[in-house]
Amino acid sequence: MGKKEKKTPEAIEEKKVVTRYDRKMEERRKAAEKAKREEKRFRIGSIVVAVLVVIFLAYSVLRPVVEKYTAVHDLYITVGNYEFTQ
Prior knowledge:
The protein is built from 2 helices and 2 strands, in the order ααββ. By secondary structure, the protein is mainly α. It has a two-stranded antiparallel sheet with strand order 1-2.
C-alpha cells in the first residue's frame, strides 16, 4: 500500500508559488503596518508633549501664588511665647 500525504494548510502554503503581485501586496501590507505604527507613536508623543506643556504652565502660574501664601502664613519669627508671620 502507498502512503497518503496529508493535505494540511501548512503543506498547501509551502507549495504555493509567490508571484510578483503577491510580493507587491505583501510590501504594501508591511508599509501600511509601518505607517500605522509611526502614526501611533506620533500621536502618543504629541499627547506627552501637550501634557508636559500643561504641567509647566500650571507650575509657572501656581508657584508664585504658593510662595506668597507660605511667606505670609508660615512662621517667621518666635519671640517668647509669640509667633510672628511676615
